[in-house]
Write a structure and sequence with these properties.
Length: 177
């Protein structure tokens, strides 16, 4: 649909399955990207946006897990990082959309809130408890001195974007975030 994005990945740029998937998705209105490691590829031509990372021949002929695979992984990392930033999943260089489902992630959530706010451990723990462990909510509570309900409302009004919610509350957050 028009709400979807499909990224076709093929080292050669001519893999029928990848080209076919991108062609089908584009016909259905999805945004399409073709990621290949050869110039003038069929995959890039089939997509609205072609990304061709020309890495040259592999050290071991046909072993596309080497240069081509590494290059494609780097591009996919960039695409996913940019996507997370645009979706409001980050604040500065912090991943703030953590779902703290185990002890390791609860500790990470605590560190993220501490780094984002500069608050002491006790204040961070109180904010995380008050917000049900929601990192963005806890940051908003600490930086705007608001309650959990107001933080939830502000984030909802800002479509989950912490920076926009802070602006609505009249705070820009720490200078380095």
């Amino acid at each position: 649909t028009a709400d979807d994005t499909v990224v076709g990945v093929s080292a050669s740029g001519r893999t029928p399955y990848a080209v076919g998937a991108v062609t089908h998705a584009r016909a259905r209105g999805a945004l399409t990207v073709g990621l290949a490691c050869n110039p003038d590829s069929a995959l890039a031509a089939a997509a609205e946006h072609g990304i061709e990372v020309v890495v040259g021949p592999e050290l071991l002929t046909g072993s596309t897990r080497l240069k081509a695979g590494t290059a494609q992984k780097l591009v996919l990392n960039m695409l996913s990082t940019i996507t997370m930033i645009r979706l409001g999943k980050t604040y500065g260089n912090l991943m703030v959309d953590v779902r703290a489902s185990n002890d390791k992630l609860r500790a990470r959530s605590h560190r993220i809130v501490t780094l984002a706010t500069g608050a002491d451990d006790a204040a961070v723990e109180r904010a995380l408890t008050a917000t049900g462990g929601e990192v963005k909510h806890a940051i908003l509570v600490l930086l705007t001195d608001t309650d959990a309900g107001t933080a939830a409302r502000l984030l909802d009004e800002a479509d989950g974007h912490l920076r926009a919610a802070l602006a609505k509350a009249g705070s820009s957050g720490p200078a380095d975030a």
